[in-house]
Amino acid sequence: MCLAVPGCILSITDATPLTRRGLVDFGGVRKEVNLAFVPEAVVGDYVLAHVGLAISRLDADAAARVIAELGGTPP
Amino acid sequence: MKFVDEFRSPAAVAALARTIASRCTRPWTLMEVCGGQTHAIVRHGLDALLPSGVELIHGPGCPVCVTPAEVLDLAHRIAARPEVVFCTFADMLRVPGSATDLFTVKSAGGDVRTVLSPLDALAVAARHPDREVVFFAVGFETTAPATALAVAEARQRGLGNFSVLVTHVRVPPALTAILREPGNRVQGFLAAGHVCAVMGTAEYDAIARDFGVPIVVTGFEPVDILDGIARCIGQLEAGRAEVENAYERAVRRDGNAHARALMRAVFEPGERRWRGLGSIPESGLVLRREYAQFDAELRFGPPAAATATEGPCISGAVLTGQRKPTDCPAFGTRCTPEHPLGATMVSSEGACAAYHRYRLPQPA
Ligand code: SF4
User: Fold this and answer.
1) What is the DSSP letter of B283?
2) What are phi and psi of B84, to 5 degrees?
3) Mapped to the 3 state alphabet, what secondary structure does B62-120 carry?
4) Core-most of B83, B91, B120, B158, by most CB within 10 Å?
5) Which of residues 179-218 of B touch A (CB under 8 A)?
6) Residue B196: helix, strand or coil by DSSP?
7) Model confidence over B297-311: pLDDT tens digits?
């Protein structure tokens, strides 16, 4: 239950601030995720989702920096 | 998959293993705080890539594992009530209390349902206004914002038939407790990246400074974990003890301000008992008085009183890194994932379950 999974926002339904939600793609599996805590996130952004809520918008530049430094495959 | 596969790259893993080997001149003992990290380490065999002097000990960061028996007993009592729909994460179903488990309560007729999110439990409450819907709120600061959101929404929508049995725990007081244990061997921490995605890193500064331990905020993929280890050992070798962020793509220094604001509105820190660690001041999150009407413990009490017996299980010592699962005489014999004696065998993030799945000698 403790895992958080990265997924890409496909669409956003703006309701009240508490119930802002979106459809998020997790490597082919699509799920509704509450986006109340990432008001800055837009369609196409990646978020870290945990128990049905996004807890962080993932920073693609920071990810690319680490990958470049460590010699992995770039995203 | 983006943001996953890149951090499993075998080339980067091999390069990091070389970096660690070249940085390391002495034996070091590190603790990975989170059960998700333990699972990844054992599953990907990351500990086998480390120099022989580097030991990883598995921390208390599995909420299923640290929930004490008396809270489970209270959950089982509430779940058995005829008017109650008891909603829980699936991981909690087979965790034994002192008498039973939720799975058994369900087979005996209790309305126990598994949910993926507290918001799903809230939806059940909205659909069944004639039933009392209780959500079993376990988890660290990663999960607490979801509970806070469900409670805040329940209040906004006037869902009086919804309540939460809160057993949320906070990481920093647990780290302090581990460092104060006589015989503590932890010299550096890999902090749990998801917790820090919510809380930020400021809470850890005082711990790093006061105890002289490096704390490296670490993610969950193989590259993340080895990067965390490399940075932690780099600090130790240089005689530094700082908070360092090795999970920058998800963790900002201030964490998630929106999640923290709602958590602060709904919860306050309070004393909590942990399986294996005992009672730790300020280590839990409890509902503020303004939200007392949503407190299942008040609604269905009496409150949980501490129970002592935990049987042959040494999960307390496993959770504090004093013993390995394989040191337990019951491991793999009397205690298996099918018939768990302790929570660390039930949860897929528990150290005993991870060892059982990936480390048990397979019959030839
Ligand atoms: S193997 Fe089972 S009995 Fe032994 S410590 Fe782990 S959970 Fe407890």
Assistant:
1) E
2) -100, 135
3) CHHHHCCHHHHHHHHHHHCCCCEEEEECHHHCCCCCCCCCHHHHHHCCCEEEECCCHHH
4) B91
5) 194, 197-198
6) helix
7) 999 977 667 665 556
pTM (two decimals): 0.90
What are the phi and psi torsion angles at A22 (to 5°)?
Answer: -150, 165
- Chain B contact for A12 (CB, 8 A cutoff): no
DSSP string, A18-74: GG-EEEEEETTEEEEEE-TT-TT--TT-EEEEETTEEEEE--HHHHHHHHHHHT---
Residue B269 makes CB contacts below 8 A (sequence gap 6+) with B170, B282, B283, B284, B285, B286
Q: Which residues pair with A50 in a beta bridge?
A: A53
Tell me the C-alpha distance between B134 and B154, whole Å: 12
CB-based contact B148:B100 (threshold 8 Å): no
Among B5, B91, B256, the residue with its CB nearest the CB of A1 is B91
How high is the ipTM of this complex?
0.88
> Distance between CA B64 and CA B18 in Å, rounded?
35
Residues in Cβ contact with A1 at an 8 Å cutoff, skipping those fewer than 6 apart? A51, B63, B64, B89, B90, B91, B138, B139, B143, B349
How does pLDDT run across B159-208, given as a tens digit for each residue?
Answer: 999 999 999 999 999 999 999 988 899 999 999 999 999 999 999 999 99
The residues, ordered by sequence, that sit 6+ positions from B187 with a Cβ below 8 Å of its Cβ are B28, B29, B30, B213, B236
CA distance A22 to chain B (A): 14
